[in-house]
Amino acid sequence: MTATLAAGREELVDGARTVVHTLGDPGGAPLLALHGLRGSHHGLAPLASHLAGYRVVVPDLPGFGASPPFTDRRHDVDGYARWAAALLASLGPGTVLLGHSFGSVVAAAVCAAAATTPRALVLVNPIAEPASAAGGVTGAGTAATALLHSGAARLGLDGVLRSRLLADAATLSMTTTRDPALRRWITAEHRAHFGTYATTESLLECFHAAGSGSVRPWAPRITVPTLLLAGARDRVAPPAGQHALAAAFGDARLVLLPRTGHLVHYEAPAWAAREIRGFLPR
């Protein structure tokens, strides 16, 4: 359940200081992986460790992990897409682009812009519709979380947003595994890394972008082969919307992983890696 990444190195990517980690075969085919909201490179390490034959490049998105926030733009989809496109271009032609959750929205925006396109796109737990538009339990949970973030920021309660209680609540809402050891490990991961954002301001900008954005508007403009890996029990990006999302692409394959929620990269990394390796063009 653990994975060891090479020590991160700081790079200047489109003017933004970015800490980048690399895992896998140094001579392998490049794959750029983008984590989701309130994540860091740690979350994608288990999946990356199973992608034999690939040089997996996992940056901390600016404002998260060890990467400082942007100084010249907002922490929204457009800001991150411009940054990610520059990093993708630096890795050279033939690079595969992968995004999880909010990272899936950023990755889709990069591909839709068509200035720099990967050879294939992999979206893990893709956001099929804006969380703010979801109904039922998902919509209510999103609204409550938005209220908590905005209220804590307005009152200067940064400690609340970095608290173990909030990390545990996220784990409870996103994890479906019944394996006690795996649940304990995911809980420990979230407690260690869920609060490693740079500033409340950058977190809120990204939070609002994540809550109002989705892959759907970008899908019709994406021309590269695309794999959608979704959890059949995902409460953040429910499977009901994944089939409609897949149909919006010109060339996409959807795989629903049974008994898996919004943390495919934690709960089923070996399975997800097999799907990815089987999909990617040789």
From TrEMBL:
Domain of life: Bacteria
All residue ranges annotated as the AB hydrolase-1 domain in the record: 32-274
Record InterPro entries: AB_hydrolase_1, AB_hydrolase_fold, AB_hydrolase_sf, Epox_hydrolase-like
Keyword ATP-binding annotated: no
SUPFAM superfamilies per the UniProt record, alphabetical: alpha/beta-Hydrolases (SSF53474)
Key words, A-Z: Hydrolase
Pfam families: Abhydrolase_6 (PF12697)
A GO MF term: hydrolase activity
Protein name: Alpha/beta fold hydrolase
